[in-house]
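Why do we bother with holo predictions? Because pocket geometry can differ from the apo form. Keep that in mind while you read this record for zinc ion.
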Amino acid sequence: MPSIEKHADISKQRTGKTYQQVHEWIDDPQYKEERHDITRVLEFSQMFREKYGEEAAREYVQHLADDLSGKFNHLVEDVQVLVDKTLAYFGAKK
Ligand SMILES: [Zn+2]
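The structure, written out:
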């Protein structure tokens, strides 16, 4: 998953604002798991909408999406390494 700084950079590129406080809230180590709970997305996005506006609510949802795609990218990279190692073990070349 991207770091808070990386999330802030992505928000800055996307919206012109870092939404640092949104990303720090989501990735707070003490509450990280419950704040990434997809079943609470309506509740938390409403909270951000009231606190910082519509764009902040969207950046909260985007944070979750970016975490997810980060995980899948890792998975794909890890599987590729495994495939390469296995092919090398059996003497196959790519
Ligand atoms: Zn996160």
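Residues 4-68 form one domain.
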